[in-house]
Amino acid sequence: MSDQAPDSLIPYDEIVQEALRAVVGRVLGEVESAGGLPGEHHFYITFKTGAPGVDIPRHLVERFPDEMTIVIQNRFWDLKVKPDGFEVGLSFNQVPAKLIIPFGAVTGFVDPAVNFALQFQAQIDDDGEEPGHETAGNDAPIATPVEDGSNVVSIDFTRKK
């Protein structure tokens, strides 16, 4: 008997990734509807800056050419959630900026207040390396990182070519 699973004709990895990104959309939609974050909740959202549909100021793309993490906590405005993504106003070094981020560009979502995190399959460069990233440093307090183990869902499917 072979240890290898047969190739699937159903794209399960893509379906799971899409469903988990819908969690991000629903959470942000509830924050939009409520007009703010409940309790101590706040979010770190990591996304690919060069992904299709991402619209952020040029100086942020230059500083974060691959991936960046934003903080949705105290200083954000005009959160608008759509079926395919969201837009939000944030301040970077006291300079306001509008960011438009499709859910397909999101690679991570963390709510440190309740130790919840989702990680999505990262895009791999042509050389096979996953590029690093730096936290954006928008004008919001830094929270404690999520501890390993509890309430973390990590999905990393490898695709056979």
Automatic annotation (TrEMBL):
Short name of one Pfam family: SspB
InterPro entries: SspB, SspB-like_sf
Superkingdom of the source species: Bacteria
Span list, region Disordered: 126-147
This protein's name: Stringent starvation protein B
